[in-house]
Specification:
By secondary structure, the chain is α/β, with parallel strands linked by helices. The chain has 13 helices and nine strands. The protein starts with a strand and ends with a helix.
Length: 284
C-alpha cells in the first residue's frame, strides 16, 4: 500500500499519474487536507483519505495499512518542520516501512533560506528509525516560467541571480522520479541530489524566450532587495517575494546548480529541456 501527502497539489497529482502506471489504484492512498477537492483522484480508483498536518489525530487513519509513504514537503513555509515531524511520528506509529521525502537540492549545505526547515525534517527522519529516502529536489523550471507573461508585458525578464547557473527541471521530471523511487527497490538510505541535465543563466532564459516569442526580452539583474520589492509590487505576498528573491540571490552563489545527473538516471531519460517548458508556457 502506497500513500502520498499533499496528493492534491501540482506535484502530488503528477506523482499519482506516474504511480498508477506501476501499481493498481486500489493500492494508492491520496492523503489530502480537503478530500472534497480530490474527487478526480477518487474517480481514478485511488483511496482519498483526510490528512491534516495541523491535526495529528487525522494522520493515524490516513496511514493505516500503508507500507510506503511519500512525504511531499508542505507549502506552509515556517510551519513545515513541525508539520513534517507530525507526519513522520504518525507514520512510525502506523508501521510504515519506508518514507520518501521531497527535500531541497544540497539541503545540508545550501545558503537558501528554504533549506533550514528541510534540514530539520531530514534530521527528524534520521532520528525516527524508519527507513527513508531523501529526494533533494532542485528548482522547478516552472518557477521561472511563471514570470514569462509579465516579462512579455513589460519587455524584460527580471531577477537577482546574476550569472549564476541554474540546473532546473520540469515538475513532471521530479514527479516521475518520486514515483520510481516509491515503487522501486533498493533505494532505502539513499539521498538523491536531483536537478536538470543542462544548466542555464537567467540571461540564457531571456534569450530563449526572446527567440521563441519573437520579441526582444533582455534579462535585467536587480539587487535582492529591489527584486523582492518588484515581486511585492506585482502582488506576490511578502513572505513568498522574500523567498524567491533569496533563492535568486542563492542562485548567484551556485545554490541551484548541480551536474550530477541523478534525476535523469532515476527516470531513465534526459530531463525536460528549458526550451520545451518555455514553449509549453507560451502556448497557454
Amino acid at each position: 500500500m502506497f500513500a502520498l501527502t499533499g496528493a492534491s497539489g501540482q506535484l502530488g497529482r503528477l506523482v499519482i499519474d506516474n504511480l498508477l502506471t506501476k501499481v493498481a489504484p486500489s493500492r494508492v492512498a491520496a492523503a489530502v487536507r480537503r478530500p472534497d477537492k480530490a474527487a478526480d483522484l477518487a474517480a481514478l480508483g485511488v483511496q482519498v483519505r483526510l490528512a491534516d498536518y495541523d491535526r495529528p489525530e487525522t494522520l493515524a487513519d490516513a496511514f493505516a495499512g500503508v507500507e510506503r509513504l511519500l512525504l511531499i514537503s508542505s507549502s506552509e513555509v515556517g510551519k513545515r518542520a513541525s508539520q513534517h515531524r507530525a507526519v513522520i511520528a504518525a507514520a512510525k506509529r502506523a508501521g510504515v516501512k519506508l518514507i520518501v521525502y521531497t527535500s531541497l537540492l544540497h539541503a545540508d549545505a545550501s545558503p537558501l533560506g528554504l533549506a533550514g526547515e528541510h534540514k530539520e525534517s531530514e534530521a527528524a527522519l534520521t532520528a525516527s528509525g524508519v527507513p527513508f529516502v531523501i529526494l533533494r529536489n532542485g528548482w522547478y523550471t516552472e518557477n521561472y516560467a511563471a514570470s514569462i507573461a509579465p516579462a512579455l508585458a513589460h519587455g524584460a525578464f527580471i531577477g537577482a541571480a546574476a550569472d549564476g547557473r541554474i540546473s532546473s527541471a520540469a515538475r513532471a521530471d521530479y514527479a516521475e522520479a518520486a514515483a520510481a523511487v516509491l515503487a522501486g527497490e533498493s533505494h532505502a538510505g539513499r539521498i538523491y541530489e536531483l536537478a536538470g541535465d543542462t544548466s542555464y543563466t537567467l540571461s540564457d532564459f531571456a534569450a530563449e524566450l526572446s527567440r521563441q516569442s519573437g520579441k526582444s526580452i533582455p534579462y535585467k539583474n536587480l539587487t535582492e532587495e529591489d527584486y523582492k520589492a518588484a515581486l511585492v509590487g506585482a502582488g506576490l505576498p511578502e513572505i513568498f517575494a522574500a523567498l524567491y528573491a533569496d533563492s535568486d540571490a542563492g542562485a548567484a552563489k551556485g545554490a541551484l546548480f548541480d551536474d550530477g545527473r541523478q534525476l535523469s538516471a532515476l527516470i531513465g531519460r534526459p530531463t525536460t529541456p528549458l526550451a520545451t517548458v518555455i514553449a509549453a508556457t507560451l502556448k497557454k
